[in-house]
Amino acid sequence: MKLGTLVRDHLLRIMAHFNEAEIHGSSIDQQTQVGMILETLPDSFIPFKTNYVLNKMDLNLIALMTELQTFEGMINSKGREANMVVSSSSSSKKKKKISDKRKTSLKAKKNVSKTEKKAAKGGKCFHCHQEGHWKRKFKEYLNSVKPKESQAA
Length: 153
Hints:
Blueprint: H1 7-23, H2 30-40, H3 46-54, H4 61-87, H5 89-122, H6 139-152
Helix pairs in contact: 1-4
Protein backbone atom coordinates (compact mmCIF):
# COMPACT_ATOMS: atom_id res chain seq x y z
CA MET A 1 0.00 0.00 0.00
CA LYS A 2 1.44 3.35 -0.98
CA LEU A 3 1.75 6.10 1.59
CA GLY A 4 -1.26 8.42 1.52
CA THR A 5 -3.52 5.90 -0.21
CA LEU A 6 -6.87 5.30 1.40
CA VAL A 7 -7.56 1.78 2.63
CA ARG A 8 -10.73 1.62 0.56
CA ASP A 9 -8.87 2.32 -2.68
CA HIS A 10 -6.18 -0.20 -1.76
CA LEU A 11 -8.71 -2.93 -1.00
CA LEU A 12 -10.67 -2.28 -4.17
CA ARG A 13 -7.46 -2.60 -6.20
CA ILE A 14 -6.58 -5.91 -4.50
CA MET A 15 -10.13 -7.22 -4.94
CA ALA A 16 -9.86 -6.41 -8.64
CA HIS A 17 -6.70 -8.53 -8.77
CA PHE A 18 -8.53 -11.39 -7.03
CA ASN A 19 -11.34 -11.16 -9.61
CA GLU A 20 -8.83 -11.14 -12.45
CA ALA A 21 -7.12 -14.23 -11.02
CA GLU A 22 -10.50 -15.94 -10.75
CA ILE A 23 -11.27 -15.13 -14.39
CA HIS A 24 -8.01 -16.79 -15.37
CA GLY A 25 -9.04 -19.97 -13.60
CA SER A 26 -7.40 -19.83 -10.17
CA SER A 27 -9.48 -19.99 -7.04
CA ILE A 28 -8.33 -18.32 -3.84
CA ASP A 29 -10.41 -19.05 -0.75
CA GLN A 30 -11.69 -16.16 1.37
CA GLN A 31 -9.35 -16.73 4.35
CA THR A 32 -6.33 -16.61 2.06
CA GLN A 33 -7.64 -13.43 0.42
CA VAL A 34 -8.07 -11.79 3.85
CA GLY A 35 -4.59 -12.93 4.85
CA MET A 36 -3.10 -11.47 1.68
CA ILE A 37 -4.88 -8.17 2.28
CA LEU A 38 -3.65 -7.99 5.87
CA GLU A 39 -0.07 -8.64 4.72
CA THR A 40 -0.20 -5.73 2.26
CA LEU A 41 -1.20 -3.19 4.92
CA PRO A 42 1.43 -0.75 6.25
CA ASP A 43 2.91 -0.86 9.76
CA SER A 44 0.36 1.64 11.06
CA PHE A 45 -2.20 -1.19 10.86
CA ILE A 46 -0.25 -3.58 13.10
CA PRO A 47 -2.70 -3.05 16.01
CA PHE A 48 -5.58 -3.99 13.71
CA LYS A 49 -3.76 -7.09 12.46
CA THR A 50 -2.95 -8.15 16.02
CA ASN A 51 -6.56 -7.66 17.09
CA TYR A 52 -7.79 -9.63 14.07
CA VAL A 53 -5.53 -12.58 14.80
CA LEU A 54 -5.90 -12.65 18.59
CA ASN A 55 -9.70 -12.41 18.49
CA LYS A 56 -9.83 -15.00 15.70
CA MET A 57 -12.06 -12.80 13.57
CA ASP A 58 -13.59 -14.30 10.46
CA LEU A 59 -14.70 -11.44 8.20
CA ASN A 60 -15.66 -11.41 4.56
CA LEU A 61 -14.01 -8.85 2.29
CA ILE A 62 -16.77 -6.24 2.62
CA ALA A 63 -16.84 -6.47 6.43
CA LEU A 64 -13.03 -6.33 6.46
CA MET A 65 -13.12 -3.18 4.34
CA THR A 66 -15.58 -1.56 6.74
CA GLU A 67 -13.49 -2.46 9.78
CA LEU A 68 -10.28 -1.24 8.14
CA GLN A 69 -11.92 2.06 7.17
CA THR A 70 -13.08 2.53 10.76
CA PHE A 71 -9.59 1.79 12.04
CA GLU A 72 -8.07 4.17 9.48
CA GLY A 73 -10.41 6.91 10.71
CA MET A 74 -9.29 6.29 14.29
CA ILE A 75 -5.62 6.44 13.26
CA ASN A 76 -6.14 9.70 11.39
CA SER A 77 -8.04 11.36 14.23
CA LYS A 78 -5.41 10.26 16.78
CA GLY A 79 -2.65 11.51 14.50
CA ARG A 80 -4.13 15.00 14.43
CA GLU A 81 -4.44 15.10 18.20
CA ALA A 82 -0.88 13.87 18.59
CA ASN A 83 0.38 16.60 16.28
CA MET A 84 -1.29 19.20 18.47
CA VAL A 85 0.31 17.75 21.56
CA VAL A 86 3.74 17.64 19.91
CA SER A 87 3.54 21.28 18.89
CA SER A 88 3.02 22.38 22.48
CA SER A 89 5.14 19.72 24.14
CA SER A 90 7.86 22.03 25.49
CA SER A 91 5.55 23.70 28.02
CA SER A 92 3.66 20.52 28.89
CA LYS A 93 6.91 18.74 29.86
CA LYS A 94 7.67 21.48 32.38
CA LYS A 95 4.17 21.21 33.82
CA LYS A 96 4.51 17.43 34.08
CA LYS A 97 7.82 17.75 35.92
CA ILE A 98 6.30 20.21 38.37
CA SER A 99 3.27 18.04 38.91
CA ASP A 100 5.51 15.00 39.50
CA LYS A 101 7.41 16.95 42.15
CA ARG A 102 4.13 17.96 43.75
CA LYS A 103 2.92 14.39 43.72
CA THR A 104 6.02 13.13 45.49
CA SER A 105 5.82 15.88 48.11
CA LEU A 106 2.13 15.16 48.68
CA LYS A 107 2.90 11.46 49.08
CA ALA A 108 5.60 12.31 51.61
CA LYS A 109 3.17 14.52 53.53
CA LYS A 110 0.57 11.76 53.53
CA ASN A 111 3.12 9.28 54.83
CA VAL A 112 4.20 11.69 57.57
CA SER A 113 0.64 12.35 58.63
CA LYS A 114 -0.02 8.60 58.90
CA THR A 115 3.03 8.15 61.12
CA GLU A 116 2.04 11.17 63.20
CA LYS A 117 -1.38 9.68 63.81
CA LYS A 118 0.12 6.38 64.86
CA ALA A 119 2.66 8.05 67.12
CA ALA A 120 0.11 10.43 68.62
CA LYS A 121 -2.05 7.53 69.74
CA GLY A 122 0.77 5.81 71.57
CA GLY A 123 3.37 8.57 71.75
CA LYS A 124 4.59 10.52 74.76
CA CYS A 125 4.62 14.30 75.18
CA PHE A 126 8.14 15.68 75.72
CA HIS A 127 6.72 18.60 77.74
CA CYS A 128 4.50 16.90 80.34
CA HIS A 129 5.63 13.29 79.76
CA GLN A 130 2.07 12.00 79.43
CA GLU A 131 0.87 9.67 76.71
CA GLY A 132 -1.80 10.47 74.13
CA HIS A 133 -0.53 13.74 72.64
CA TRP A 134 2.59 15.45 71.40
CA LYS A 135 4.41 18.49 72.62
CA ARG A 136 3.69 20.60 69.55
CA LYS A 137 -0.05 20.06 70.02
CA PHE A 138 -0.11 20.42 73.80
CA LYS A 139 -2.14 23.57 74.70
CA GLU A 140 -0.17 24.51 77.80
CA TYR A 141 3.11 24.37 75.91
CA LEU A 142 1.69 26.37 73.00
CA ASN A 143 0.36 29.04 75.37
CA SER A 144 3.74 29.33 77.05
CA VAL A 145 5.52 29.70 73.69
CA LYS A 146 3.14 32.33 72.25
CA PRO A 147 4.08 35.15 74.68
CA LYS A 148 7.78 34.56 73.94
CA GLU A 149 7.17 34.81 70.20
CA SER A 150 5.21 38.07 70.56
CA GLN A 151 7.99 39.62 72.70
CA ALA A 152 10.63 38.65 70.10
CA ALA A 153 8.66 40.27 67.27
